Amino acid sequence: MQRVLEQTYSAISVRDGSDPINDCPASVLALLPAHPDPLIALAHLKLHTFPFASVPTCWRRLYTDASLAKAVALIEQGLVHSKDYATSPSRSKRKRRGDPDQSPDDGLTEEPWIDEAAKVLDMAAIMAGPAGREGMIEALLSELQSYLMRAAPSQKKRLRVDKGWDSFPVAQNMELSDVPHIQHPIQSAAAPSMQAFEMHMKTAQPLCIKDVLAHWPAMHERPWSSPAYLLDKTLGGRRLIPVEIGRSYTDVNWGQSIITFREFMERYMMRQITDPGKLGYLAQHDLFSQIPSLRNDIAIPDYCYTDSPPLKTSSLTAPEKLWNRLDEPLLNAWFGPAGTVSPLHTDPYHNILCQVVGKKYIRLYSPSQTSKLYPRGVEDGGVDMSNTSEVDAEGALNELEARYPLFRQAEYLETILSEGECLYIPVGWWHYVRSLSVSFSVSFWWN
Questions:
Q1: pLDDT for position 327
Q2: What's the pTM value of the predicted model, to 2 decimals?
Q3: What is the per-residue pLDDT for 271?
Q4: Averaged over 317-332, what is the pLDDT?
Q5: Which ranges of 150-235 does DSSP label H, i.e. alpha helix?
């Protein structure tokens, strides 16, 4: 722990001439690392002044480095009360730095200072990017995880996972009446060879893939079906995550919030929610760069490295044509209770969706059906939503026929994706997804 703290403090204190943070005013940099709080506030303001893609790198770097400085101070102050720290030969040197903004006498006990340090580091990763400091953030969080593992028996008792968290509640599962009857099944194959998969891609048709996830630790020895395991991997549930609130991002009352993983589990995953507008969904989040230890529980399917057929841009909606070619697959996590929905939309990448926990109902429409799917246009604020349909794919039939008369004519394929199964979704295909139980999926995008 001491070595990582020293290395982090040194890195944010001594900057070379090529560091993008040097584009910030000198008067601002003079406050770093001694006074991180006003710098975090200033950088936060700058992050919300521009569209994220246009935020000057110096402000993202300032937010991250100031957050690292604050986290180092919080950890050092917390460790002041530990026996190991009290005998550390570097303690007096750290105290001479004049640690910023707080004193060791602020009444922080082990749990609160760990909570606050984790919050500061995760906010940097989520808000700023984390602007080239991924290794430092992960190193500090890893040290905190190790510290908890070494905690004294009295501390472990306080950190113990709640009883009944060995599995998700059965009450979360959908009633049988809510599980669709599959009328237009998607073709399936058991562990096709790479050559067979490449040949199938040329048909531009989806494919259910079975028997390829059995080697994932997430399916067995490090089970994502265990709430207790997930809490352990998220620093006792202290890690922050972005959560979508509501049934679907197209609903009027939809919103977003950043909360701890434990809050997410307690509020949305471990009890039944009857109001769809109050569902919580960890959706399309790069959880695995934020928490690399979870990344070690899965593996990128070999199929993502096949030679894909030439991209037909005519099958893509306008904003998707602007997306860049990927050097490596993009990984996203999708974790939520029964009833969460990804509305009918299309993506500019080939996708293999892997189901780790629970079941999902998925309906697919070919790009040839686009004219019957009523794509949205540019909405308030100039956001181009033309890759998302206006139609609620499972809405009331009388309403659909009245508002979207062509939709009923659209041809589709469908499946119920179960644990251990994957679904290949070709680039440009429209897809609608609804969770039938607590569900944890991973999507792999490539092109």
A1: 87
A2: 0.87
A3: 87
A4: 72
A5: 153-159, 194-201, 227-233
The pLDDT tens digits of the residues spanning 265-324 come to 999 999 888 888 889 999 999 999 999 989 999 999 999 999 877 666 555 554 555 457
SS (H, E, C) the chain: CHHHHHHHHHHHHCCCCCCHHHHCCHHHHCCCCCCHHHHHHHHHHHHCCCCHHHCCHHHHHHHHHHHHHHHHHHHHHHHCCCHHHHCCCCHHHHHHCCCCCCCCCCCCCHHHHHHHHHHHHHHHHHHHCCCCCHHHHHHHHHHHHHHHHCCCHHHHHHHCCCCCCCCCCHHHCCCHHHCCCCCCECCEEECCCHHHHHHHHCCCCCEEEECCCCCCHHHCCCCCCCHHHHHHHCCCCCCEEEEEECCCCCCCCCEEEEEEHHHHHHHHHCCCCCCHHHCEEEEEECHHHHCHHHHCCCCCCHHHHCCCCCCCHHHCCHHHHHCCCCCCCEEEEEEECCCCEEEEEECCCEEEEEEEECCEEEEEECHHHHHHCCECCEEHHHEECCCEECCCCCCCHHHHHHHCCCHHHCCCEEEEECCCCEEEECCCCEEEEEECCCEEEEEEEEC
Q: Which residues of 386-405 are buried (b: 16+ CB within 10 A; e: fewer)?
A: bbbbbbbbeeeeeebeeebe
Residue 35 has pLDDT above 60, yes or no: yes
Q: Which residue has the higher pLDDT, 412 or 316?
A: 412
